Amino acid sequence: MTSVLFVCLGNICRSPLAEGILRAELVGRGAGDRIMVASAGTGSWHVGNPPDPRSVEVAMRHGIDISGQRARQVRAEDFSRFDLVLAMDGENLANLFRLAGASAATLRAEGRLRRFLDRDVPDPYYGGADGFERVHEMLKRGASALADEILGS
Ligand code: 4NP
Fold first, then answer.
1. For the chain, how big is the Rg over CA atoms in Å?
2. Which of 125, 135, 136, 138 to mutate to test the pocket of ligand 1 (most atoms within 8 A of CB)?
3. Which of 54, 120, 126, 133 has the fewest beta carbons under 10 Å from its own?
4. Whose alpha carbon is nearest atom 12 of ligand 1?
5. Residue range 52-60: mean pLDDT, rounded
6. Catalytic annotation on 14?
7. Which of 27-31, 57-61, 125-129 has the lowest mean pLDDT?
8. What are the sequence ranges of the domains in the chain?
9. What are phi and psi of 104, to 5 degrees?
């Protein structure tokens, strides 16, 4: 069993969408029950809240229902519970390294704590619907590559 945790700032826009997209990608490849996918935020403002309506909507447009997900904050034990912790941007990653403390260097060296994509997934919170569509596109491409990596295909 492999487990993946996506992390953004609020856990209401980017990481819940990434969670839904990767899960759907894995289910589509018949591996839905082999990989555990979750998401969390470095911040605590939105804990317990459903994803932002704009993320729910863009997911729905692409055939995925993420409305049942609820925001939670990253915890120190996430670094041992998850095989992969993937940050949406460099700022989230820096905060995660701080939170990981003594284990940060090992997690980095093993590639278990890293930025999800080779560039930042921009925070769409203060922008319009087009920003969410662009984020979806980036996450979709990244999820497909990650599924290849995890499943070794
Ligand atoms: P996310 O977007 O990190 O992709 O969930 C944000 C959501 C909320 C806030 C910032 C970013 N906020 O400042 O409340």
1. 14
2. 125
3. 126
4. 10
5. 98
6. yes
7. 125-129
8. 2-151
9. -55, -45
Q: Is 111 left (phi over 0), alpha (psi -120 to 50) or beta?
A: left
Counting ligand 1 atoms within 8 A of each CB, the residue from 123, 136, 138, 139 with the most, and so the one to mutate, is: 123
Residue 1 pLDDT more than 80?
no
pTM over 0.90: yes
How remote is the CA of residue 2 from the centroid of ligand 1, in Å?
27
Q: How confident is the model at residue 111 (pLDDT cuts 50, 70, 90)?
A: very high
Contact at 8 Å (CB) between 112 and 85?
yes
CATH 3.40.50.2300 fits 2-151, yes or no: yes
Counting from 1 in the atom list of ligand 1, the atom nearest the Cα of 12 is 5
